[in-house]
Design goal:
44% helix; 8 strands; 220 residues; homohexamer; 4-stranded parallel β-sheet
Chain lengths: 220, 220, 220, 220, 220, 220
């Protein structure tokens, strides 16, 4: 199948891109679209603020424009989906965002979704976005693990914090499905799900799976 | 990949199942899960009422139970998603419904979704379901083409009516994405989209694509 | 007044029907419609899952069809209102469901309603239904007492658990009116209300009262 | 049964009270609560503005206070439910309002309710109230017949206008149940329902029926 | 600039009016509209119930009518905005209410607003109003400090209680902006904001600021 | 009063900035904050797409950073409020956006707001934003006048189209207050209001008025 799904990590941290690449591996098939994961080198180390989110739109659009001819679809792999709507205007291909896809997948797995955010400063931004998506009627809560992007290299601590946060979402906020509010952490999905006993959505996988489907169907 | 995605048409009309089978063909890959489309022979010729929808749940659960060991996932291929929640309780595999998946896909393609229903008697049922899904804040309208299930064999007339209904949804109800509120009509998707100039979602394709993604990821 | 209001308990537990019968006694008047409470013998001992809810629709519709000529109205006496919409299609008489009527009565008694469920597995189902009813904007919470249907024969423990759950709904979820999320427990309504200090709605009474009104007005 | 349900027409037009009295007649039973319909002589001829609505609260509370010992329940019989919440604070008896009860009854009869208002100036007030009730997710439309309160004595013209307005609500706004947005017009309910082919709720009947149920259950 | 903005305290407590007068002082400019703060001597000492709120509408309208010719705008300075909609009907000038203006200002400062109420009995009334305003999707919580209107003279205790309540709104209800649900307490705004670390809105200031803008623009 | 309110037009069209400057003139007072209107020379001629909106955030933040020390507040004067949330993170001063302020002011003037957009391509973007604001429950409609930004120099045609669009919003969508969905057109506000007979909000004025209030109160 011609064309590549470009999953663009809009932050410049290669380790995140590597995590994404691993996350989408099961979605690659011999006769399906290729899936390539890219790092937006112009991006900040992590997207922590609205400013960060807005700042990557220009470079992301430019990068995507250069890939347009090779592309079958684009995935914006940051939980704020920066540039997703602008890229939909620019590209003739399907464009998915991981927050959007992750939340919608969650809504097929539970009735009230909770989100595990990395930073407290992201929560207002997430809520504005969920409002724009029209899903606040099924929102349980969005809580941060309170760790900086750099601390996330400590895997054990990260999982521990995600688990504790997930338990609060489940027990206090009555979430019956959890969305990981960040990219590049697919390796924690399964242990988290086991610890919490409710479904956990890794949003990059959700978006990439949607993209594969869209590409296959468009090609038909 | 072991396991089959069973797409179950809960009505007994084989032509609908054949249409579904054709619709999901692009989603089959050599190394992916098989996709088998089945007709629920115990179902009515078409699901036209709440009674019809409720009546197929028992047979559908029974049929799915018999397939559980072979199954990788199930798709309920009727726009009322009858039995979907009960099947989620019963099966250890992913279970998708075409209305749920179709609407969520639509919400990644436009801001206000419109639905083309076959029968006027389905609209209240759809609205209750959209309310349960929590998406009424993005609902534009749900209009019927006013043709009986049997009349649908007239393809030309069906497409003509769907086009007219879609134009009303677009122009009067301000829908910027349309969901086909029925299964087995994938062949009309592209001409409808061309006639309307806004994206049109075929919900069986949306659900089957989601199912493929879920199966691939679960197998990893 | 000709015609009987048939209150159908869709589970097969006669004790529940007896509790319902006692609950609606004050609504019987010498010149009003008769009220008869029936047990759906084909039903499960208790409706604990979506599967259970869906499974009773067929038998319930059949039973109601046999009663159509004698009937003045029907009440579906299970908090999931199984078959209510299908019965509305089938019957020319008023059809009320206890969850629908109970919640609407609650909304005339407080601003945010809480629901005491029996089983945790019912809560998602309730929430889907409240969403379909469009009342999530006034929803405070839905918490289970965590007792099996069989344990409910222990009246003291049941009331104790309902009281504790009601207090959590009142104090943590800010419910100012409580709906009992089950049928057949009218005897606990008053002690619960006294213990909680906020109005408590017994939903079978709410639905049967609505049915009496509808029948009297239709007969005029 | 001791105690009287006082249905208070907060405007001073006796003809409206007479219409209400006739409307609730079928709800009177030999062993049930008495139902007395009163005119608030201090009220304006019709409640046409927010000022009118607010102005009747004081006299209504005073009148109700004088009736408290005889009362079993109160019904505020004006579609703005003026004083209903204050009267709930004041009285130890059930207090129903016709708009609240009428809308909730409508929501058991259709999925999207339409309201036929008398005056255009009432519509904003109604919408604020429906917002407070949390039912805007099921609102289809609220349209006025554009006749002054005094013109309403012309029954033929009134019914004609109500029918035309109801048809617009049904066909353009997709209402599948209609609420009459005024008291004292029960005589038009049946012809309107026949002309429209969808259920029509007379709100005074809805509220009085609820009141009867509440009184019977409280007395038990 | 001709015309005066009349800020009417609808309760009869002069100390409250004095607090309001001090609160709006920074909004007075040499070339802008005068701002006069009045006490409605007919009002109760404090507005604690729906009855209290309704009772002041008549006197407030009368007072405002007498001021109409001198007025440039009116502000209703009680957090229930009693009479605001009726006064909008009566006056040709802008009419603002402090709850409405305070909540809207809050929504420009945070994503989820919390309200500090004085009395628990006000909370249901507030919620009905927020529902009418259509802002429940951004509502975090409304909690009372549990002090009588007379106790409020104890400034230290009042601030202490407001701070504790604000912390609960922030930490448990996830409010990121707080509205003071009462008039006349502007002196606590800054210490409260410092103690809580999130923006705090004094609603009389919000409304008076809006009024000044409206008057200046209308005069142009 | 020290400090200047900087109203930043994020498009590069000086005529728009001139229109804004004229619009806010009545809000300038001798003892109040200065109001300076600036053109973002790096911006496009008009903001017509999400891409345009996103593209101005960087330059706008940079420009505002340079003004931070002189500034008392910022107003983002484009109906998409581009960069508003990022600027709130960056600046210690109040930051208002014209869409947000305009809509909230509208909600104090009517129950259902309509928006007159310039281009059809802006409507989806507006709707996402109104969803994020949580005000869709009071949304009537958003219709475009269908003129390019350059055509807007034809004042007569522009007003004619705005009037026709406003009438549709009023009569078909039941808007009772209209927001002008663009900056720089304050000169049309009054004739539009006269032609429509419902309040019309010019959003730059609404935002600048709010900013003046915030600055005065912060300075106190």
């Amino acid at each position: 199948m011609a064309g590549t799904i470009f999953v663009i990590n809009p932050n410049s941290t290669e380790a995140v891109t590597a995590g994404i690449d691993q996350a989408v591996e099961p979605l690659r098939s011999v006769d399906g679209p290729k899936i390539a994961c890219l790092t937006l080198t112009e991006g900040p180390a992590g997207i922590q603020s609205q400013r960060d989110a807005d700042s990557v739109v220009g470079p992301l659009l430019k990068r995507a424009a250069g890939l347009e001819n090779e592309a079958a679809a684009f995935v914006v792999a940051c939980f704020s989906d920066p540039g997703m709507h602008a890229l939909r205007e620019q590209s003739r291909h399907p464009v998915l965002g991981i927050a959007e896809s992750g939340v919608f997948q969650a809504l097929t797995l539970g009735q009230r979704f909770g989100v595990i955010a990395i930073l407290p400063s992201s929560i207002q931004r997430h809520l504005r976005y969920f409002g724009a998506m029209g899903v606040m009627g099924r929102f349980a809560g969005d809580l941060s693990i309170g760790m900086g992007v750099t601390e996330l290299s400590n895997a054990e601590k990260t999982l521990e914090r995600m688990t504790a946060t997930g338990k609060t979402l489940r027990d206090t906020h009555h979430a019956d499905v959890i969305v990981m509010g960040c990219a590049g952490m697919a390796r924690f999905r399964r242990p988290l799900e086991e610890a919490l006993g409710v479904p956990v959505v890794e949003p990059t996988q959700a978006a990439a799976a949607m993209a594969v489907g869209r590409v296959r169907l468009a090609a038909a």
